[in-house]
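--- STAGE predict ---
source: upstream dedup step, 1 unique chain passed
mode: sequence only
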Amino acid sequence: MLNEAFEHISNKVETALEPQGFKKEKISSMDENEMVSLYTSETMAYSVVYYTDEQHMVLRECAMTDDGPNNEWKTLATWMFDPDHDTLKEASSIANDFCDALSAPSAIKKAKQAKKTKKSDEGNADPVFLMKRFMTLFPELKDEIRYEQDCYYPFRGVTFAREKVVPRVNELVKTGKAADLKKLGQILSTQYGNGDPDTRSIITIVILNSIPAEYDAKIEEYLDDNLKKAFTYAKKYRNKTVKPEKEKKKRPTVAQRLEGMQK
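--- STAGE serialize ---
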């Protein structure tokens, strides 16, 4: 039912967007807990996403760059969809709501007036976005990322990478299959290219520099030229003390916050 419902909604959205010059892209989600369809024009992108863990069907938008969506997604509508109980009737209601939003005069005007954004040299993907990409290799990170987000603000990117990601990456580089190493290289290279300064530093200084030097060649085989060059420069900081990340205040847990609201 879920696949049928998602396809039904996606097709309806595609039909609504075609007259505005949008085309449906052939993509697949890197996250096993998400279903995604993407529609792009020269200046804008729309996406329908279903989050299986939350049972949310979401319509979102962002601007386009020369390299594709800038990934600064803004949610336009969210609906609950439970595949165990809901049917195509509910899917049609969701599709109609999404299409109404996309076909509204204000939405059409916005799409016509939108301008393509330039991709910044510094990128816009942050450490949280990077950590979530690793979930395709290490699914168990999902709960650990949630705990980090719930308990600390802002997200402790360096600390999380050192404690949760580095040990897994090192083990993968030592014993992983070529296919997994290739996937790791793609994640690191793509996110280095798209990442903000904090994300780039985490990739080079924290993650790559933590790989034992004897395995450098093994991972470099799967890095793009841009990241290979950055990694070569970063090696001079290997085994040197780097200023630690400022200790961030631990947030109350969800349960504690709810308890406080009730008092």
